[in-house]
Q: What sequence folds into this?
C-alpha cells in the first residue's frame, strides 16, 4: 500500500517556496498550496481578519502536508493504491491540474465509470491493472494534457520546461 509519508518530502521539494507569477492562474502559491484552496481549507495565519497572499507566505511545511494529504492524497484514496509510484504520480498530477480532471483521466484509462469521483471501483481498477502499463499511459496522458494547455494558452509556455521536468522526475518502481 502507498504511504503519504513517502511522498510528502518529494512533493514539497517539487513545489518549492512562495511564488506569485503573474501568468499562474492559481495566484499566490507556497509549496503548491494556492490561495483559493487555503481560503477553503486553511485559516488566517497572520491574524488580520482575511486570508490573502500574506497568509500564503506564512504557510509552513506542516500546513502544506496537511492540505496535500487531506485534499489530494485522501481524495484519490491513495492509501489503498498498491503501487507507491503510481499513487504518487496520480496525486501529484491532481495536485497540479485538479482532482476531478485527473480522476476522470485515470478512470478512462482504467476502464471504469468516468465521473471524477474516486471510490472503491476506481481503486480496484487501478490495483488490478498492469501497474507499469497504467503508469506509462498516465505519463503520456499528462504530457498530452500539458501540451494542450500550451495550445489553448500559448502564454503558458513559460512553465513548460518546469512542467516536463516535473513529469519526468517520476519513474515507475515495482511495488
A:
Amino acid at each position: 500500500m502507498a504511504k503519504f509519508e513517502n511522498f510528502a518530502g518529494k512533493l514539497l521539494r517539487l513545489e518549492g517556496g512562495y511564488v506569485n507569477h503573474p501568468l499562474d492562474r492559481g495566484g499566490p502559491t507556497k509549496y503548491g498550496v494556492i490561495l483559493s484552496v487555503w481560503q477553503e481549507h486553511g485559516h488566517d495565519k497572520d491574524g488580520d481578519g482575511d486570508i490573502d497572499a500574506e497568509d500564503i507566505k506564512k504557510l509552513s511545511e506542516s500546513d502544506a502536508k496537511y492540505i496535500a494529504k487531506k485534499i489530494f492524497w485522501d481524495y484519490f484514496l491513495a492509501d489503498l493504491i498498491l503501487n507507491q509510484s503510481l499513487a504518487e504520480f496520480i496525486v501529484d498530477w491532481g495536485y497540479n491540474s485538479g482532482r476531478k480532471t485527473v480522476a476522470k483521466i485515470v478512470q478512462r484509462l482504467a476502464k471504469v465509470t468516468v465521473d471524477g469521483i474516486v471510490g472503491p471501483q476506481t481503486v480496484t481498477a487501478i490495483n488490478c491493472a498492469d501497474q507499469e502499463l497504467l503508469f506509462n499511459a498516465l505519463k503520456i496522458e499528462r504530457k498530452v494534457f500539458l501540451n494542450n494547455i500550451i495550445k489553448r494558452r500559448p502564454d503558458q509556455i513559460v512553465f513548460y520546461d518546469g512542467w516536463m521536468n516535473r513529469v519526468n522526475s517520476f519513474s515507475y518502481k515495482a511495488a
